[in-house]
From TrEMBL:
Domain of life the protein comes from: Eukaryota
Pfam families recorded: FMO-like
Lineage of the species this protein comes from: Eukaryota, Fungi, Dikarya, Ascomycota, Pezizomycotina
Annotated GO MF terms: flavin adenine dinucleotide binding; N,N-dimethylaniline monooxygenase activity; NADP binding
Protein name: Cyclohexanone monooxygenase
Amino acid sequence: MGSIGAQEQNYDVLIIGAGLSGIYSLHQVRERLPSARVRVLEAAEGAGGTWFWNCYPGARFDSETISYQFSWDKELLQEWNWKETFSAQPDILQYIERVCEKHDLYGDIQFNTRITSAQWQDTDRNWLLVDETGVQYRTRFLITCLGVLSNPTLPAIAGIQDFQGPSFHPSRWPKDFDMKRDFANKRIGVIGTGATGIQTITETSKEPSIKSLTVFQRTPSWSAPLRNAKITTEQMQKLKGEYDSTFQQCASTPTGFLHQADPRKSSEVSHEERVALWEKLYAEPGFAKWIGTFRDTFLDREANRLYSEFMADKIRQRVDDPVLAESLIPKNHGFGTRRVPLESGYFEAFNQSNVHLVDLQKTPIDRITPNGIRTTDGTEHQLDVLVYATGFDAITGGFSPIEWHGKDDRPLLGSSDGETGKRARWVDHRPYTYLGLMVPSFPNMFMVLGPHQPFGNVPRSIEHAVQVVAQLLEFCQNKNYTVVEASEEAANGWTEHVIECGKGGLLNEVDSWMTGINTNVPGKRVRSVVRYGGSAVEYRKRCQQCRAAGWSGFNFA
Ligand code: NA7
């Protein structure tokens, strides 16, 4: 690949982020463009992205480990022994560190480097990046590996700065945390009951030395059993022998998971047959109960209502106090229309005398005080520690901490009621992309797991996106192209297609991070289609067609 300058801070390819996307991008760039000067810039002090940051108690995969690891290193697949069906965060991080060591990736990853601005330089045909200390980096090509859930958001609640005890967002959990030492005899409060809150709450509730745990719930979640188990040596050997078929199976399903929907509609079968399938799924580990149910469950309101009622009864059976059980059952959205958090004893935690639920629909938070949380009924819930499991500025939000200037100085993000909104490519966080890989006006800037890509089984989506980006870079190198940019026509077509794919899906009719909502972020209060709702198989086919047609939809110079 041609050199772009003599100074040390000049690169051919820069990658932002050293999570799974970033480290595999580095590996692919090295493989396909061996002479390229490539570097990963990472804000954290270690690799792993999501799995580096989210070290809160209870953090673990709720997708099957076996299908949720990298598939590209066959040697490592045979070497690595997983301990559990759903791996815990420390084990995942250890695995990622092993990937980096084995492939000697650390030499090209620069940690503690937080990029704050990225500007396209039309004259030089490169990107100028600046980090928070003012150091500049120039690169011909830029691969953003920013993560879908990397920008944590604290709740927009009055008095948050007043709380005197320790407080943290789970994705910024103290690295030296020790549950026995730090939570012993403490009154702990958790705001938020999404997947993160549910893992944190369940794990914390199991610690016998805590004084109390108070859960502040605005919207209950349709949580269901994870059913984790240890993997024995014999089981691991067997799993290793099946990896080819495991990944083939993932490649054949719409979500990239091993599970797929039952081909029948719920209306086609009797009540007994429906319940038989639901009971079977409920007893299975992982997302079987979300993805494996009747195919109309997330398209047809009545089908969804029936399944939701079945799931509501399961919650009722697990919570001793019937009034409390009703508070824990979602009423404003159906099962699986938001991401289903999987748990290991979450509902039973509320049967403990030291675990309390504050239903914020009945008594909203008035403010955070120095000693706890005051609700609108005047009660002050006394707390020693406060956990804000209040989610992320998801998907487009990963791009927010960087000030983007594309071609003609166009911003990436802007609000419709501000000056920037007039020119921004993603007005009010509504994505506009081609294949979720590039944005017009942002030449040479690629996205791995950007908006408009399928998210399902994340490592499967990452591997595919990274390979497409690396192939496109290889194409540029072979043809001596120094600029590649998605055309407006292609981006219009793709954005329309993504919106079309989302129609009729119940998931797109519910507020959640998957529909672009975050009530704590101004400009994220209106739903938008942020992820590709078609099947991952279809997505890959479309990328393949684009490539086969000489990368149609991209302009080269
Ligand atoms: P989520 O799923 O976005 O959940 C955030 C939770 O925090 C949710 O229960 C919110 O209630 C609650 N929340 C947010 N802001 C507030 C305020 N201001 N007051 C009270 N409650 C609030 O984030 P997670 O981190 O749990 O999970 C994100 C993904 O990570 C997950 O889907 C997995 O893929 C991994 P709300 O529902 O908005 O009423």
